[in-house]
Amino acid sequence: MTDTPALSARDLTKIYRRSHLGRTRSSLGVEGVTFSINAGEVFGLLGLNGSGKTTTLKLLLGLLFPTRGEVRILGAPAGSRAVQESIGFLPEIPYFYKFLSGREVLSFYGRLSGLPPRLLKPRIEETLAAVRMTENAHRPMREYSKGMLQRIGLAQSMLHDPKILIFDEPVTGLDPLGLREMREIIQGLNQKGKTVLFSSHSISEVEKLCHRVGILVKGRLVRVVERKEWAVEHGRLEDLFVQTVAPDHEAPRIGGSHAPSVASPASGRP
Amino acid sequence: MNAIFSIARTTLIQQLRNRLYLVIVLFGLLMIAASLLLGAVAADQEIRVILDLGLATSEVFGLALAIFGAVTLVIEEMESKTIYLILTRPLPRAHYVIGRFLGLLLAVWTSLAVMEALHFGLLFAKGWKADPLVLASLPVMGLKVMVMTGLALLCSLAFTSAPTATVFSLFFWVLGHFGAELRFLTERTGRAAASAAIRLLLWVLPNLSLLNPRDALEVPGFNLAPLVWSAGYAALYTATCLALSIALFSRKEF
């Protein structure tokens, strides 16, 4: 890992303005988000629903324009061609053209990413093998399961060998085996020196994969936690997260006169 | 350029595998085949009926494909979110708009070619002798479809709702054929404001009467020279629509 920021956001603010019948309504997406990610680092974004995780990622990717603030990726402003070449993106639910097969989808995205024709085919096969989709690559996307779509989504993000990978909720909806494979792929990418930024609800996955974690609360990045802070004990990151997003939270009490009785193996009940 | 080609190619495949596209083309073919029945009723005007009905059918069904295809071309992709994985690639947004437009246009031109192949097949089977003016009307029909594809795409980006964009595109298509009548109105109306409004509308509307091949066929001694002017006009109008579409699309957030 080096100290050179691969990605940095300064005072990133997005206020959504929606006009309807002459009336404009504003809502806060994110406000004053400032952080930087070092090259070769795995950085996680944690937050409750609506905390601004996806908005932050979209601002980094140039899908949204900031109301205020600045994003720099590898030293260049977000949205520039050089920046886009160095980024691979996996959305929360990968949406593809259903009329294309997995291989055709990768060929399409490979061309858009500027892969030269002579490299395109071998690179597609290599990436399909990496996500274990070679056998199903000829089938149309409409026949794919959620896990298979996620694998092709992952494949398209890695296809052009980008330096930075941005994943939005990459483990949502995956079965345990899928989860494990996704974790192994992210670890493998990081071992190759790639910078990975991903948002997630899964604290256990974030805990296993990330070097640092940013916690978003109501559109504000209120805390950045380093691995050494949660590595001391299992479940520490969850405690830190809950303390940050809901300082007054208390664990629900199960007990008292109305609590259901639980049979223990030693109780002798059938 | 590679990105434009890739997007155009994928759009073409998307249209050719689209059920709505196939159904519209099939109905067009059925209508053209049905012109044989109407031709049989018209005794000595059989070939004329098949010729006119075939051209009209191709144009109407081609325009339906162009308008319905164009208004959903980008909106559908925004709603289905397939656009995320395209716009995060290293390509200018203008290339995306141009690629989508070209892909759709090729699909619509393909449909026109298929319908006209059947149409001319029927005409030749009935003993029709090739008329260069009739043949020249085919590329003009293609130009008209091109103008409407560009205009419908612009409407879809301006209104961001497929039904609204469809209504406006149809409105422009209908009014676009009444340029001469609108000009007559500007001369007759006594009100300066109304006259200015109609003049403005005339500037905005496509002059589709310039691209009406069947009108050209009615002119005695008609030559092909005006078709060059028509082609230039269609190219300029379409390019303007595309430039405005790109300007609107560049400001869009997803």
Question: What can you see in these coordinates?
Answer:
The complex is a heterodimer of chains A (270) and B (254). In chain A, 33% of the residues lie in helices and 27% in strands. With 270 residues, chain A is α/β, with parallel strands linked by helices. In chain A, strands 6-7-8-3-9-10 form a 6-stranded mixed sheet, sandwiched between helices. Chain A has a 4-stranded antiparallel sheet with strand order 2-1-4-5, covered by helices on one side. Helices cover 81% and strands 0% of the residues of chain B. Chain B has 12 helices and no strands. In chain B, helix 7 packs antiparallel against helix 8 (162-176) and helix 9 runs antiparallel to helix 10 (192-204). The interface between A and B is medium-sized, with 27 and 23 residues.
How is the topology of this model organized?
The complex is a heterodimer of chains A (270) and B (254).
Chain A (H helix, E strand, L loop, with lengths): L4 E16 L2 E16 L3 E6 L5 H9 L6 E6 L2 E2 L3 H5 L1 E4 L11 H11 L4 H14 L15 H13 L5 E5 L7 H16 L3 E6 L2 H7 L2 E6 L2 E7 H4 L5 H10 L25
Helix pairs in contact in A: 3-4, 4-5
Chain B lengths: L1 H15 L2 H23 L4 H28 L1 H6 L3 H4 L5 H33 L6 H28 L2 H15 L2 H10 L3 H13 L8 H6 L6 H26 L4
Helix pairs in contact in B: 1-6, 2-3, 2-6, 3-6, 3-7, 3-8, 6-7, 6-12, 7-8, 7-12, 9-10
Summary?
In chain A, 33% of the residues lie in helices and 27% in strands.
